[in-house]
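Marked as duplicate of an earlier ticket. Keeping the data here for the record.
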Amino acid sequence: MSPWGKATVNLVGLSEALGTSRLSFASSQQLDTYLQAQSGAVSVFDVMNDPEHRVSLVIANAIWQVQAVECQPFCHDQTWVIATQDLARWLQGIGRRYQTVDHQ
């Protein structure tokens, strides 16, 4: 197990936190259309493939409480570790806004 821990997503709770009626995972076709990503290999880095910001980026507040996070960059067989401050700086650098939520 990774020393960084693992998180799960409660879609009902997240939907309530975002004030929306229903959330679901994107289809393979939607991932390809909007993020040029493959199912099983989606990470925060894929938002760079969405210059029109058609996909909303939501990040749990808990992410900003740790020093670093693990991400799989564009494939499922590699893992990068990025400092959360560097992630925030990268998102700002590409002009990407995001919403934060308290979520359990």
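See parent ticket for discussion. The mean pLDDT is 86.
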